[in-house]
Each structure stands twice: as structure tokens, then as C-alpha cells.
């Protein structure tokens, strides 16, 4: 049972993105009021906004994270689906070409893994809507930027902000949460208070993204699997990959990405060429006939950056969540799920201690770091092997052994249902990576796939018909 809130406990969350919204949901039951301070304007509908540029790129919300959102804000899935978000069963709803080959789309009645596929503007708007419906004492103050933290290097006591007209405002609070994403303004604000610097680890495979929205062909609009052509980190060459995600409108959001030395560009003509030169041309075949909607969006906001607030002498009354604490290479699609699971961890610590306890921020920061470690380990465990990666040290013996083990498991996974289930447990952040280290999994890695490799993507007859019609029609006749 949540403790009753201490009457004066006010919480300020800096940043009204997904991590900030979910942190507000986690802390609201324990606070007399929550103020979310956001630099941007937050639209009243699922519309693009300046402060969320990554919304132009494909996003998947794995079930490990989506379930955490539901636990914090019941009714979110229902509202997502009412607005068209796709519920994609995993692995059935995914056509995935791994370095070892095509994954089978096993049908399993007992399987409970899924991903929510929607444009990010919708995903976030629904969560924000559920938050304001659930908690009348949470307030968003938009068009505001932080000026300084109140307090000293031992305890933060609030935040001074400025509105768009430059007017200052003082927000006293028992707790200030930095959820400003990759902007991560907390470190700068803490330095002004005289707090010691926060150690940072950075692993950068130099990944660049190019994405474009396409109107999918008629036969594909009511339902289409996620298509994922993965990169191979074992070749020693710069790697490229593609993801096609069906959106709430039946369109396809297509993201191409490449590590340092193999970057997609904003050039419209080069988009399809890049997709065609990947390990398999399926994504290129799909976009060839689909009608593009709008320009190509680019980003290089992809390095893995971990700010070790949990190890720093951070003042009481301050903590960081989401990308502001741990940002991971987005190709593994874990940022939102990690933020959601961290928010749930935050609520557990708040249930135990209450937010005014002097130990709260430190304990909560450690719990958040533990949750974020899963995505960090998965992402950096791969990225360290891409050529030109910038990292504190090259992969050591343990990382190389783990890399070889995962490669062997991936190989087994293309023809072993049990291995796929365990992989999916971990990939969806439903279960910890220790699931991959059981004796049965070690045997499976040694044995290899039980079934032969597929010689092409496992398409249903309807999907094959769409692809055939796409291949038959040349949209660029000579
Ligand atoms: C190309 C790309 C693809 C991705 N794909 C996936 C995916 O498939 N699945 C997945 O789970 N994750 C994905 N991610 C990661 C995901 O987008 C992030 O992990 C997630 O948005 C983190 O949420 P956040 O709230 O921490 O940060 P953000 O969503 O970035 O929100 C930060 C908020 O803080 C505000 N802000 C910033 N500075 C200030 C300031 N000074 N004052 C006040 N407010 C401020 C911003 O306006 C914004 O509202 C992807 C990311 C990228 C770049």
C-alpha cells in the first residue's frame, strides 16, 4: 500500500517527455503536488513537437516496458489501441533477419511477448493523457526552462525556472527529478551548487539514422508485421540495418541506420539504395512501391551515454531518470521500456520510504540504475564490436566471450523455439539476461539450430501477395 503523502511534499520533474511523465505517475501517489517543467509546448493531440525530434523515427515499445506503463497508469493500452496503436505479438508479428538467418515466426498460445507500434507522438500523448486523468494534482508548466537548483551541495530544495517572457518563478520541492533526455541538464545545474562531477561512460558506434514515412499499399494497411533487417557486428565492417514499423494509421515508418563509415543520408533517391544494399533487400522492396509521405528525417543522437548518478555524491532531493541518466543506442529499441521500468522501480522505493525521506533519492537512483543496466549491457555488448567505436576500452576477454556466446545462441535461435522464447524474454525486457545462461541454453548454443535455415522471410500468403504486387509494379519505368 502506498504511504499517505506528506502534506508539504512537492515534487518537481524537469522534462515532460516519456520518462518525466512516467516519473510523475510513479511519484504522484506520494506527493502533495507534482509540477512537470517542460521547455517545449505539449500539444493536446498526438501531434509532432519540437522537443521530441526522435518522433520522426520508428519506435517500438517492448512488452517489458509497456506492461510497466500499464502498472503505473492502468488503461494506457486500451487508449493506445483505441487510437490505432498496433499490438504486435512477438515473434509472430515480426519478420527478422538476424546475422544467423531468418527467424521463424513461431505461433505459441502461451507466448505473451508483444510490442506496441505507433508513432511516438501518439505513444507519448496517450501516456500524458492517462497521467492527467489519473492525478488531478499533477501540473504541466510548459515553455519554461530551468535556471538553477535551490539548496546546496548536500540537499536540493527546489528549482528556479524562467518562462518564455523571461519571468522567474521559484518552485520549492522535496525532490527534483531530471528527465530532460539526452539534453541532461542536471549535471550543469548540480555543478553550480558545488556538487562533485558525475562520472560518465560513453560508448559510441557512430550510428546515424534516416527515416521516412510511407503510405503502405492497400493490402498492408489493416495489419503488417514489423520488418527488421539486423546488422552483423561480427564482420569487422561498418554495418547497416533497417526497420519497418506499421503505425496507427496503417502507414509504414521506415528507419535505416548505419554505424560509423556507413551512414544513410537525407537524400531521397539514396534512401532506397541504402536499403537495397543491406544484407537483404526486403525493406527496399517494400518502400519501392509505397508512396513516401514527407521528407527524410536524420539524427545522430545515438551514442550510449551512462551518467553514474548512482555512484556520485549527488545531493539528497535530486535524481535523474530516462535518457538523462542512461541513454542507449536506439537500434535496440530499449529507451522507452527502460524508462518505464525505471519509473516502476521509483514507485517501489517511494512506496517503501516516501519521497521526503533523506535516503529516498539515493536509494531510488540505485534502483533506476539497476533497471537501466539491462538495456545498457545489451546495447554496449554489441556496439563495442563495430569498427571505429569510441569507448573507454576495447572489449576485454569477458565481453568477447559473451559476444561469441550470444552469436552461438542467435545461430541456435533460427531453429529452436525454446531459445527464441528466452531471447524474446530478454529483448522485450520482460526478464533479466541471466535467462540466457541456463544449462539448457548453454546446451542449445553448443548444439546449434534444431531445424534447417529458412531460405527467405517467413511471409504469410497475404503478405507474400503484397510483396509480389510490389515487385511486379515498377514505379520508376525507364
Ligand atoms: C532515432 C531514435 C529511435 C529510437 N527508437 C526507439 C525505439 O524503437 N524504442 C524505444 O524504446 N526507444 C527508442 N528510442 C529512444 C527513446 O526515444 C528515448 O529513450 C526516450 O525518448 C527517452 O525518454 P526521455 O523522457 O528520457 O527523453 P525525451 O523523450 O527526449 O524527453 C525529454 C524531454 O525533456 C525536455 N527538455 C529538454 N531540455 C529541457 C530543459 N532544459 N528544460 C525543460 N525541458 C527540457 C524535452 O523537450 C523533452 O520533452 C529512439 C531514439 C532515437 C533517437
Task: Please outline the major beta sheet.
Answer: 7 strands, mixed
| CATH-assigned homologous superfamily of the domain at 10-83 and 120-202 and 303-379 | FAD/NAD(P)-binding domain
Query: Structural class from helices and strands?
Result: alpha+beta
N→C terminal distance:
69 Å
C-alpha-based Rg, rounded: 23 Å
Per the principal axes of the C-alpha atoms, what is the gross shape? globular
Number of strands: 21
**Contiguous runs where pLDDT drops below 50 for at least 5 residues:** none
Share in β-strands: 15-25%
- Give the strand order, joined by hyphens, for the main sheet: 6-5-15-16-17-14-18
Tally of individual helices = 13
Bound molecules: flavin-adenine dinucleotide
Short structural summary:
The protein is an alpha+beta fold and about 475 residues long. The chain has helices spanning about 20-25, 65-70, 75-80, 120-135, 185-195, 270-275, 280-290, 335-355, 360-385, 395-415, 415-425, 440-445, 460-470, and strands at about 10-15, 35, 60, 85-90, 95-100, 100, 115, 140, 145-150, 155-165, 170, 175-180, 200-205, 210-215, 225-230, 240-245, 250-260, 290-300, 305, 320, 325. The protein has a domain at about 10-85 and about 120-200 and about 305-380: FAD/NAD(P)-binding domain (3-Layer(bba) Sandwich), CATH 3.50.50.60.
Task: Please describe what this structure looks like.
With 478 residues, the chain is of the alpha+beta class. It has a domain at 10-83 and 120-202 and 303-379: FAD/NAD(P)-binding domain (3-Layer(bba) Sandwich), CATH 3.50.50. Helices cover 33% and strands 22% of the residues. The chain contains 13 helices and 21 strands. The chain has helices spanning 18-27, 63-72, 76-82, 120-134, 186-193, 268-276, 282-289, 335-353, 360-383, 397-413, 417-427, 439-447, 461-472, and strands at residues 10-14, 33-37, 60-62, 86-89, 94-98, 101-102, 114-117, 138-141, 144-151, 156-163, 168-172, 175-178, 200-203, 208-215, 226-229, 240-246, 252-258, 291-299, 304-307, 318-320, 326-327. Helix 10 crosses helix 12 (439-447). The chain is globular and about 65 Å long. Bound molecules: flavin-adenine dinucleotide. Flavin-adenine dinucleotide binds next to helix 1, strand 3, strand 9 and helix 8. Flavin-adenine dinucleotide is lined by residues 14-20, 37-40, 51-52, 54, 57, 59-61, 145-146, 179-181, 183, 185, 209, 299, 301, 322-324, 330, 333-337, 339.
